[in-house]
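Long-time lurker, first post. I've been practising inverse folding by hand and with some scripts of my own, and I keep getting stuck on stretches where the structure tokens seem ambiguous. Below is the full token string for one chain I'm working on. Before anyone asks, I'm not after the true native sequence, just a reasonable design that respects the backbone. If someone could post their per-position residues I'd love to compare against what I wrote down in my notebook.
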């Protein structure tokens, strides 16, 4: 086990400000915010249901999809083709949209009143959704492939392994691995507590979870060995991996923490994280660049900070907002940062290629 050592980074003036390219204001809290694979389009869902398809350069609204009206939208995920968009909602449905035309293509029932998460397979040939204690898997034509319903409680989160081999699901009692083509579970990583969110390391070797009891768990996928990090101020809902799989950023309070998962042969166990001080209220969102070293953090104070935690714990840039940050998302080329806010604002900030620090010649992950 490892706890958070009370070392606060010295608060320093920001070295630069994020430059806002555009902003639009919708009627309600932004619950989901996703870039298409091309970087040309941004999808933003309001908690009340509507989904706006935006031109990422100008912020012009191209379509407003009805989403899941009346009850509300919960999640979004783009198909790798950058045209099809899947949404989930409190109406028990997963809906597929053609964002070029703005038309609904399919509606798929999950068998529960509320669908929490939706996730396309990296290859785009399968769509997974979590509703109640079940996870369903469909082919792109809507054919149901699997219903995995042996979870002990409501499934809080799902995520595909980066290479697409397995799907991980999080519920009370830990994390379960599933493999398309198999009806029975592949493996269970057990823990007696409520797991809220999960995130695979990009190399697929580790699964991290944020938990209700203000802890973070790491599981080594091959061995099943687990570690627990404790001492957070609040339950942990924010996780972000660096592209190298070495560093994991976590929320769970007003100070983001960055763990070195290769600190020793035992991973982060026994180490102390880098702590990043800038926010005056709990952190609500974290996002590492796809291929660069910058970490973005957003908080209930409305502020968005940029950090380069592998070098130091000083804030690199800052943008002030008028309400709590709800979502952060980097563009596929890592030069723009989209921010969703509690008051319905969606803003895109630009980062120059020099500031973005994206290695030259590095392929962009979409």
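-- Answer (accepted) --
I ran through it position by position. Result:
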């Amino acid at each position: 086990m490892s706890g958070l050592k009370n070392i606060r980074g010295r608060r320093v003036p920001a070295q630069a400000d994020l430059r806002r390219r555009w902003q639009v204001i919708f009627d309600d809290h932004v619950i989901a915010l996703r870039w298409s694979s091309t970087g040309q389009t941004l999808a933003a869902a309001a908690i009340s249901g509507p989904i706006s398809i935006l031109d990422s350069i100008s912020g012009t609204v191209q379509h407003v999809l009805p989403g899941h009206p009346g009850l509300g939208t919960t999640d979004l995920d783009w198909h790798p083709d950058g045209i099809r968009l899947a949404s989930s909602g409190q109406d028990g449905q997963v809906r597929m949209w053609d964002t070029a035309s703005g038309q609904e293509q399919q509606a798929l029932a999950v068998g529960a009143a509320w669908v929490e998460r939706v996730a396309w397979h990296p290859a785009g040939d399968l769509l997974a959704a979590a509703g109640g204690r079940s996870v369903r898997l469909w082919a792109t034509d809507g054919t149901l492939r699997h219903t995995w319903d042996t979870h002990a409680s409501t499934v809080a989160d799902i995520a595909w392994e980066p290479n697409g081999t397995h799907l991980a699901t999080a519920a009370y009692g830990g994390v379960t691995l599933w493999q398309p083509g198999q009806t029975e579970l592949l493996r269970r990583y057990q823990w007696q507590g409520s797991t809220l969110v999960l995130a695979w390391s990009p190399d697929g070797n580790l699964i991290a979870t944020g938990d209700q009891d203000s802890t973070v768990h790491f599981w080594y996928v091959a061995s099943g060995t687990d570690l627990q990090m404790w001492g957070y101020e609040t339950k942990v809902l924010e996780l972000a991996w660096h592209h190298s799989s070495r560093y994991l950023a976590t929320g769970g309070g007003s100070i983001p923490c960055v763990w070195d998962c290769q600190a020793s042969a035992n991973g982060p166990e026994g180490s102390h994280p880098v702590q990043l001080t800038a926010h005056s209220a709990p952190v609500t969102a974290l996002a590492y660049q796809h291929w660069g070293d910058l970490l973005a953090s957003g908080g209930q104070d409305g502020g968005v900070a940029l950090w380069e935690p592998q070098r130091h714990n000083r804030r690199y840039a800052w943008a002030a907002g008028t309400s709590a940050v709800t979502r952060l998302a980097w563009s596929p080329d890592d030069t723009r940062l989209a921010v969703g806010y509690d008051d319905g604002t969606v803003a895109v900030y630009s980062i120059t290629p020099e500031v973005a620090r994206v290695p030259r010649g590095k392929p962009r992950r979409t």
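A couple of notes from the structure itself: The first strand starts at residue 2 and ends at 3. Residues 2-356 form a domain with the Methylamine Dehydrogenase; Chain H fold (CATH 2.130.10.10). Happy to go over any region you disagree with.
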